[in-house]
Amino acid sequence: MTTLGGWMNKILIGWGVDPKFANTFDETIIAILMIAMAVGLDYLCQAIFVGGMKHYTKRSPHRWNTLLMKRKVVPHLIHTLPGILIYFLLPYTFVHGVELLELAQKVCAVYIVAALAFATNGLLLVFLDFQNQKDTSKNHPMKGFIQVLQVLAFFVAAIIAVSILIDKSPATLFAGLGASAAVLMLVFKDSILGFVAGIQLSANEMLRIGDWIALPNGGANGIVKEITLNTVKIQNWDNTISTIPPYTLVNGSFQNWRGMQESGGRRVNKNIYLDMTTLKFCTPEMIDTIRKEIPLMADYQPVEGEVPTNAQLYRIYIERYLCSLPVVNQDLDLIISQKEMTTYGVPIQVYFFSRNKVWKEYERIQSDIFDHLLVMVQKFDLKLYQYSD
Fold this sequence. Notes:
3-stranded antiparallel beta sheet, Alpha-Beta Plaits, SH3 type barrels, mechanosensitive monoatomic ion channel activity, 5-stranded antiparallel beta sheet, alpha+beta, transmembrane, MscS_beta-dom_sf
C-alpha cells in the first residue's frame, strides 16, 4: 500500500537527499504538511460556511440564526472537520512509527471531542437566550439549570477525552467515579446546594428576576438582577452589587416585596405623638369653630348624648382627609387609631396604602400627607409631644 510517508520519502530521495535522512524525517514532514493543510482547511471552511452564515444572518436576521452566530455554534462545529480529516489520513502517514500514530490519533480524537463539547455548550446558551426572550422567563429563570447542563456536558467530554488518552472505556471511568463520589460531593458542594436551592426558589416562585428583596441581616436590599447556579446577584439601592448563595435564601429568611409591587398600593404606617396634657373634651364653641375653619369637618355632628374629645375629632379629620386624596387607595385598609400611651405621649396610628409604589413618589406622598397632618394638630387645640431635658 502506497503511503504518504513513502511518497514523501521518494520525493526527498529524488531531490538528492540522503536516504538515511529521508527515512528519518519523511513522515515528520508529512505530519507538518498535514497540520498546515488542516489549518488551511479550517480557515477555508470558516470562510465558506461561517462567512455564508453571517451574510445570510445580515440579510435575513431571524432569532435562531442570530443566536447561533452569537454563541459560535457553527464555528465550533466547523472546527471538527479538519480534525476528522487528519484522523483518517494519519494511518497513511505514520507507517513505521506505530506509537506515534496512536498518539496522533488520540490527540485528534480529543480535539474533536473538545470541539463538539464547545458546540454543545453553544447550543445550550442558544436555548437559554430563547428562554430569556420569553415573558415567562422571569417567573422561571433557566440560567441555573443551563449551568448544570453545561457542567455535565464538559464533565462527560472530559471523561471521554481521558478515556481516549489512557485507552480505557468511558464506562469503566464512570464506574470508578462511584468510589470517589464523596470527594466529588465535597468539591462540588456549593454547586449541588445551589442547584437544589435554585429548583426550590424557582418551583415555589419564591424569587424572580426583577424582584425587590431585603435580607434581615442587611447584607442585601435591592433588585434581583441574575439567578445562577451558585449565586443570586442583587443590585442594592446604592448601586452596589451583592452576591448571595441561593441556599442561603432557602435556609434563611428574606423579604420579597413582589406582593406589594403587584398589589394595589404600598403601605404607610406611622404614628403621630400628641401631648397628653392637651387632650380635652370639646365644648360646643370648639366644635362650631372647627366646622367653620376646616371644610372637611363642616358636616360633622357628634353622636347624641356624647361629648367628643379634641383627639377624637382629629382622628375623624385624618380619616376624612385621607379619603379625599386620590393617591390613597380606598379599597385597601385605612385605619386611624389611638395606641397605648407611652412616655413619648399618646400615639395616633395612621395606617393606609399609597397607590403610587415608586420609591421616590411614595416618600414624597407620605411626607406631604404627614406635613399636613402635623400642622393641622393645632387646629384641634392639640400639641405634639416633644421631648425636652
